Amino acid sequence: MAKITLENLGHSYMESPQSEADWALKKLNIDWEDGGAYALLGPSGCGKTTLLSIISGLLHPSAGRVLFDDKDVTDLPPDQRHIAQVFQFPVVYDTMTVYDNLAFPLRNRHVPEADVDKRVREIAEMIDLTDTLGSRAKGLTADGKQKISLGRGLVRSDVNVIMFDEPLTVIDPHLKWLLRSKLKELHQRVKTTMIYVTHDQTEALTFADKVVVMNLGEVVQIGTPVDLFERPQHTFVGHFIGSPGMNVLPCAVEDGKPHFAGTEIDTASDKNLNDIKGTLQIGVRPEFVQFADKGVPAKVVKVSDAGRFRIVETHADDTSIKLLVPEGQGIPADDAYLAFDRNHTQVYRDGWIVA
Amino acid sequence: MTLELKDVSLRFGADTHIYPTSLTLDPGSFNILLGTTLAGKTTLMKLMAGLEKPTRGEVWFSGRNVTGVSVRSRNVSMVYQQFINYPNLTVYENIASPLRVARIAEAEIRKKVESLAELLKLSPMLERRPGELSGGQQQRTALARALAKDSDLVLLDEPLANLDFKLREELRDELPRLFADRDCIVVYATTEPTEALLFGGNTACLHEGRIAQFGPTGEIYRAPKDLVSAQVFSDPPINTVTVTKRGGEFRLADMAAWAAIGEFANIADGDYTLGVRPHHVSPLARGENPVGIDGKVLVAELSGSESIIHFTMHGATWVSQSHGIHPFEVGSQAKLYADMSRAMLFDKNGTRVAA
Amino acid sequence: MNNKTINHAAWIFVLPVVALVAFNAIIPLMTVVNYSVQETFGDNTFFWAGVIWFEEVLHSSRFHDALLRQLAFTFTILAIEVPLGVAIALAMPRKGAWVSVCLVTMALPLLIPWNVVGAMWNIFALPDIGLLGRGLNALGFDYNFTRQPGDAWFTLILMDVWHWTSLVVLLAYAGLVSIPDAYYQAAKIDGAGSFAIFRFIQLPKLKRVLTIAVLLRFMDSFMIYTEPFVLTGGGPGNSTTLLSIDLVKIALGQFDLGPAAAMSLIYFLIILLLSWVFYTLMMRSEAQ
User: Which domain holds residue C160?
Assistant: First the structure.
């Protein structure tokens, strides 16, 4: 177990990067505490897999350092970093039994066979594989194979961090729930630092204590799921997290107050907007918009049933505003007024939140 | 232009892949095949397309028996989970390819390709090759090609499964609109209940080679015919437990009891399977008939806006999905409330009991 | 619905192939079957002979010797070429400019016509003027492949290894590059050494492709004719007379059509049987 520090970390796949855009990762400084559950969340191409490879030692960064417990490991190969990784597609040793798969990392490190046996059985119990220990790993289902991959990390007592690279990609939805909660449960039991890379917000938010949101090689926000949901620091976070994402509306300023569609909007900040230059926008999540008797005039254009709630799309002043209506509540037929929850409505300047 | 499957079945040797299935799909309809991996979605699509010949039964299209007519002489398009395009042709030529086969005039082709590119936001990349595009753009190209063909039957086999979460959301929003003014039959296979709900249309719940139920999507979700349909159409999985009715009361072992009211007032005494969807189980007493249940917390997943609590109760594992953040200590005893006014009851054969 | 007619013309294009296969395989094979059960005295009159040719061939020590030589040759070259081929494939680079250089170099021997290979090695190995022959003698070895059976075998096997190891290399290489990176990464993380990586990742993933390689090399080497014929002509004595060479000697040298036909069929059946055994064994271990 270890604290992980990334210091001025940067990476480019080019020989001599010229412009900002040549960098797949741009100047990262992150501290990951020992024993935490972290998620790296972002769209494909945001640099999250690159970052993962650098931490595991499969890739050498072009700039900066990686520290485990304040010890520089930038130049160490993967096997000397004491890390474990679960890949997107299950990696098992086909010719071996489940038992031998789990024992493999220990045997490679010349652990006495008696200890290997004890440890393998203990971990198999934890990941519910005791009954299949004797069968060939090849014959298992995708979720079983992912458990083996995870188990190969858990058996080692020297593991600093376990990393997951979109581990649920090939798992059916109804099994995703089980495997995901299993991961969470295991983290709460073994307290090893875990880093979970994904583009799926549900996986990231439910697994992690802290989520690192990345876009275009940069960290946009690091925060708890609640922070990211309630106070996105950037419109990108607002859009990327939440389904549907945050409504981002053009903002006009009158008397220093934000206005949309000719209506003054109450927001979480009382700041006078007259002094602020740049493009202003108002951000409010669909969860915090409601139908009301007065407020922003809007027209209902589309209603989609999601079971627990309905997603209602409205148009106000040529801008689309979505809101969530819980099961069993009525929806106006056509013309309506929208009210925004003041505490969860923010103003953004050039994408970044105005505090 | 109606597609009819009449008692169609498919067997390979002793293995039955599709049990006798009858299904009528109307022109202009959007139909969803919902089921887990290996439920038979792809096989059923192949039977519809004519890529597979049924062992028994007939396939009729527009009042004509087309069983055994090769797929080439039917007007069908298919889009797959993998992004399948001609790698050496530009996006323009890819979209134009079915039109070229149909020997349509060049000017006409240009017009059609450009309007499709506009619709699918591909206009800026018409001269690029599929390899230079992102996953989302590649799948848009494949969709555009399917649309260009102007088919009578469009089969979409989990087309969004390999896309990023946010891209999936975006395309899911656009898809029904693409087909809105066409009278072709669309069949869309998915493993995700939420996706089915958001598309609306009709849903067929598939389970182990059988259609459990077919009908309007919202109706099947709210009033499934049997336990299999309810299980297929629930994400997270529906919570189940055996309950006993005696007189005017239901009992869950000696843990909870509640009055049999409403539609359940007059059903016969005996054992039933109770089904409660996770969002009708909450840490707070909500709904019309909340009944407290004691459980032991396995995992608490707190996303930014909701809590997903996994707990064991009377030997079964249940899930509660509720709005708001409700922290629970793992391993602690907790009281959760199931809204029995929303619960479903199934008899010994799995058929739903309704008044 | 737009109705396209099914194009039956497609079948016409298949006809030439059907005709070719008939002329090329079925008719000659039937002729051989026909010869193998008859006796002729060369004037185109035939008598029914039943299975006497088969009995004769199966009991002849000449056939036994040729078969043993053939088996010895085949298993020797398999034992060398398969491990060597895999080893070379493992040593080849996976990325970069050298990949194409290596691949072309490897493919070169496969592009040379078989009789040229035989002739090349014949000259190359001649003890008086050939580079190999003279070199070996200069180093103090008493080497003469035209006189000493051991030297003839050595040269024959060296030639085959030179000619055909490339095939195994190319197949194994194709198998190796198709292994996803994640497997290597996982192994590195699990602390596996290069032997463990070979034993538990590369070898299992190569199994299919190696099955094909072994089968191809087995069938080819069992039927080899041109190269040894040009190199040694089956000599010195009968020491390198493999089955195929013996067969031609009987059929064309002595014009014993009956025994030659019977021998051909037995030869054919041995190849079929051994190939089947190989394939089944390898597939069975795959299935387990």
Answer: 62-252+261-287
